[in-house]
Structure prediction request, 582 residues.
Amino acid sequence: MIAGVGSSHGADRLGWEVVDALQQRPLPPEVGLYHCSLPVELSSLLLLSKYAIVVDAMLGHGPVGKIHVLGADNLPQARFSSGAHGVGLSDAVGLAIALGFEPRNLSVVALDVVQPDAVWDPEWVAVLTQAVLARLTEELEKIP
Amino acid sequence: MSHTANHDPNREIRIDVPLLTRVEGEGSLEFVARNGRIESLQLRIFEPPRLFEKFLEGKDYSEVPNIAARVCGVCPIAYQMTSIRAMEKVFGMQESPWVHAMRRVVYYGEWLQSHALHLNLFAAPDFLGFSDVIHMAHRHPEDVRRGMHLQELGNDMLRLLGGRSVHPIGLRVGGFFRAPPKHEVADLVDKLLAARDLVREFVAWAVGLPYPKDEQEFVSIAVRHPHEYGINEGRLASDRGLDIDFSEYPERFREHQVSHSTAHYSMLDGSSYFLGPLARMNLNFDLLPAEVQDLARELGLRFPSHDMFHNVAARALECYLAVVDSLNILQAYRLPNRPWIEPTPRAGVGHHCTEAPRGMIYHRFELNESGEVIAATMIPPTSQNQARLEQNLNVAMERFGLQHADEQLRELCEKVIRNYDPCLSCSTHFLKMTVHRE
Prediction:
């Protein structure tokens, strides 16, 4: 499962845009593509998934455009796009793990936008899409 | 919550919460007590103006629903539906029976996802003594899973008619852009049937949560319809005799500003009032389907109630209503010839109220002869509830007693605020407070 997390606002829509871009690519039929807005939606999706890649914009320390690939154990609290109702990505992942999702089966691929009001760059979508596809390829190669 | 009471109630207490975190919008809480009396208890909302009403000016009526949906990520249907119905009134349109029924279903979807989210993730940890739902999930995984399942079921209902669960795009003036094919409806019916027992368990679980008792005097206001539980259509009613057309709202309800909040306070004839699931139950219990009324009685619930925390039970009972009534509607589903009526724009003013998950919402639209917006007014339930919420806090704190520790006072404030499920307090541990003892 690949889930783009975010909203329609500014740089926060990056995760959705990447999922839109992936919908134009030939992917194995077992790979589901989803847009998530409320992070708690992500918890439900993770519980239905064997392996998950979550795509998001990241408010990191830069530089702008840097790709981060993170696991469940090193998600920085509240460093991603802030979630509705104050529930963020790390909370959504934590809830899924508490309910049985295997944390090693999660990759978070994020692009550092540094500031939530960062000026949108269309190139980010292409760069992040490639990073997600690379991560997906790595995981698919592990499948016997 | 421990009731250890070993502090001097006459001490000076100053609980200053400069920023309410984990909220949608920005707000703070200031609590000051001296000599055993509460001097000040203010919920300050200082979120900047959203300007949606201004954005809508000059827009064609057909653009309004999608813009209105952006006001809130949790209850977009409320904003879409209310604006659509207000504009349909300008155009002199009547809902077709099919559109009326499907509008109930999509609104039920919003209620179910919002109520399940609130009860499961935000309110229950309070009552069960957990810091958040993640900790609660370790001890009560099945309860949390059940709530998440119901929330997702609500999202499925939203997707059926709205096209997507967040900021739906399926609604339009006159009806819906698309009538779901029968196989999609049948799939949802199967899910609803499978969830019927689950939601009954959910209601029983919610009613059994150890929430405090908090009897208060308040005026309940809700949409009341003569033949169905009020959601989209009817008149505005109160338990003190109010019975008015939606167009009379501006004459009876007045907004005013207070210095400590950018959100307007709203008063009915000069007094505060209460909106939301409990207000709806207080006014419309007799219009619930028989099996929903029966479940309430089985669980020992009696409405009307003036126990503020019966808002929890009312909210849960509305989840059952959403499943039961949606099944009643969708099991008799027929494809319409066309899922909308074509509007004929004309100039005028339209008013409408519907029931958002957290209470009644009012919209007024003034359109020109081309159907362009001249002026828009949108009054959400959260601001309408704000005056009552502050009164609720004052009474609850005085009854609880200032002899309790600051932390306990803060916990009670959180429970009271969260009980309204306002957009400014619907998560756990949103209060980061600084306590000054003088």
About this structure: Chain A touches chain B at residues 7-8, 35, 37-38, 40-41, 43-44, 47, 84-87, 91, 94-95, 98-100 (CB under 8 Å).
